[in-house]
Amino acid sequence: MNELVGLSKVEEYLREQPDLRLAIIYGSMAAGRARPDSDLDVAVAGREPLLVERKMALISGLAELTGRTIDLVDLSTVGEPLLGQIIAGGRRVLGADRDHAELLRRHLFDQADFLPLRQRILRERREAWLQR
């Protein structure tokens, strides 16, 4: 599959889903580094968290469309550090600026909460390793 043609089909497919308000393609496809065996990483948000059946339907539809394995993430439930990776390397293909700004706000608040914990864990691991 030609990556550009494939992504335009994916964008069209996602825009046709009435329950989705935000969609971001991330990973190797978004970065232009996809190989023939690369999966397609897609993060989506609906009005409510997606039910398992809805996630499966989206995965099935995207896999059929692209011929690739699909890694689908629900933006309403994803946490750090994956949310930060999606935002940093992702390509928004669906959604209003307001919805994207709300996602960025959540990321910044979550990161502010998560970063000190991560730094403490790393410091404790480093100290334990040095005391061996």
Report the mean per-residue pLDDT as an integer: 91
User: Biggest sheet, in brief?
Assistant: 4 strands, mixed
- Anisotropy-based shape: globular
Radius of gyration: 17 Å
**SSE pattern, N- to C-terminal:** HEHEHEHEH
Characterise the protein shown here.
The chain is of the alpha+beta class and 132 residues long. The chain has one domain (3-130): Beta Polymerase, domain 2 (2-Layer Sandwich). 56% of the residues lie in helices and 18% in strands. It is built from 5 helices and 4 strands, in the order H-E-H-E-H-E-H-E-H. It has helices at residues 3-15, 28-31, 52-66, 82-89, 97-130; strands at residues 20-26, 40-46, 70-74, 91-95. It has a 4-stranded mixed sheet, with helices on both faces. Helix 3 (52-66) links the parallel strand 2 and strand 3 (70-74). Helix 1 packs antiparallel against helix 3. It is globular, with a radius of gyration of 17 Å. The protein starts with a helix and ends with a helix. 24% of the residues are buried.
Show the helix and strand layout.
Elements (H helix, E strand, L loop, with lengths): L2 H13 L4 E7 L1 H4 L8 E7 L5 H15 L3 E5 L7 H8 L1 E5 L1 H34 L2
Parallel strand pairs: 2-3
Antiparallel strand pairs: 1-2, 1-4
